[in-house]
Amino acid sequence: MKRTLLRAAIFVAVLLVIYGLGVACEAGFTEYVQRIVLLAGINVILAVGLNLINGTTGQFSIGHAGFMAVGAYGAAYVGVQLAPVAHRALGTGAVSNAFSFNLALLAGALFAGLSGLIVGLPSLRLRGDYLAVVTLGFGEIIRILFNNATFLGAATGYFGDDPSGLPAYTTFFWVYAWVALIVVLIHNLTFSQTGRSLTAIREDEIAAEAMATPTTRLKVTAFAISAATAGIAGGLFAHMQAGVRPEDFRFEKSIDMIVMIIVGGLGSISGAILGGIFVAVSLELMRDLQQYRLVLYALLLIVIMIVRPQGLLGRRELYQLFRKRKAGSGLESSR
Amino acid sequence: MSLLELRGVDKIFGGLHAVRGVSFAVEKGSIFGLIGPNGAGKTTLFNVITGVYRPEHGEILLAGKDLAGLRPARIAARGVARTFQNIRIFRSMTVAENVMVAGHHLHSASIADAMLRTRRYEQDERALGKRAHELLEIFGLSHLAQEVAGSLPYGSQRRLEIARALMLSPELLLLDEPAAGMNSQEARTLNEQIRFLRDKLGLTVILVEHNMAVIMKVCETIHVVDHGETIAQGNPAEIKVNPAVLAAYLGQEEPNNQARS
Known about the structure:
The complex is a heterodimer of chains A (335) and B (261).
Chain A: H1 2-28, H2 31-56, H3 64-90, H4 94-124, H5 130-148, H6 172-190, H7 193-203, H8 205-210, H9 215-238, H10 251-264, H11 269-285, H12 293-307
Helix pairs in contact in A: 1-6, 2-6, 2-9, 2-10, 2-11, 3-4, 3-5, 3-9, 4-5, 4-9, 7-9, 10-11, 10-12
Chain B: E1 2-13, E2 16-27, E3 31-35, H1 42-49, E4 57-62, E5 65-66, H2 72-77, E6 80-82, H3 95-101, H4 111-116, H5 119-138, H6 154-166, E7 172-176, H7 184-199, E8 204-208, H8 212-218, E9 221-226, E10 229-234, H9 236-241, H10 243-250
Parallel strand pairs in B: 3-8, 3-9, 6-7, 7-8
Antiparallel strand pairs in B: 1-2, 1-4, 4-5, 9-10
């Protein structure tokens, strides 16, 4: 009981802090900078989610932009359908908007998670790199599907029924509330028996299997969770720019995500957070060099592989940097 | 009734008949040795028993129930634990984590429980940690619990593998060359530990080993295979003088004795 109260208090406190930071951000930064801050938050969600499957579980997905696209379109579409219902029930205020926005995000996450399940079930039954091949194909197929789906605007993109486009629901508060929630949930998952089993699969799948680990089920579950977080990021992304276009989710987007987790350190949640922020900022700094972006990223990856192959943090978390490694031992209480 | 029974097991890899009609029964509570020259099919037999390979023919019965077609994880959950010839620990994880991974049966908390850190999750986590610590204690590894497993010396890694296998609470333990790379002192300790597993923990042990000092000392029954086929079975005293076994290990006998084999 006391625990529940304490947790509720922390929860409210975190939301208040995020709200405060949001107010400060809107007052102190230009709109241009604010946009980068929001993109950084969305990147963090993408990176932390992708890290669960690529870093912790060691199964390489290189088409995560596809799941982001499913989440973006799903959330945008559901949001548009939901808004009038919410307006009738809750009025036109902030509460009603928050309600339909978050429900839309969850719907997007659900669609993305389900497509993760569909992609993961056949390809994760096998050992090896099949997932990379299948996700690569999936990312392209999804984009082409949206490119041709007339009820979602086809190549022009989906802008809702309103001439001004999708409502700009995505604010600092919502982005970072979702960041906080997803980081905590994924962190808790990673440092648990499930997380240990996922790491064991990465380390040695045959041995994990011999230790009664239900490898296929865990891999598919982790992949679906990862896809669902990409879906949330997609939904947030959709509602910060009036509409979603198929070309927002090209192969380059998937590469961006992989760069995020490799720069920070594959397998580290703090690394994924740093990597997400890094990519958001560097993309802006390189804006004038747009067409050379992939070249620069390739160079960057090569340099990282030579100088620091384990990424910025390796597999450690930020809070483990200054003490001997004893990740998630569970022998003493983990909190 | 025997705990494990193989009946006419065949395993074929392309043109290689790796295991040919092997049958044996392992009594509950016994220490059973499986020996043979290199490439005789011992590890293949282990892989067939644990479900890594599917046999072409034959039955594998665990306490009378057929294991055919089950995935390795299912077979492990039914109480068949193993170690590997070339150590397969989870190198980047800590020693304690390595052992805890095998504790699925002590763990009922769902993924949602883990994400929300519910009470049930914490109870499970404590139970896992406690059991892991007990096992590490038995194998003299508890002071290394927080070390990264890959950094352990070879002998400790072998013991860690056994500790991890025991975390499954198995009935049957398959040890694939546990004494490989050990010096004679370490091998003697291993002897004691294997006996301990049987006497105190009530395990049935199948042992693949090239170290005859270990095999002859601890095994009650020894099964010998060569080129995938059974060539002998008996107690250590019988195996030591069995001509077929000697021929397999030492090559052909003198011409005047050849008629016997």
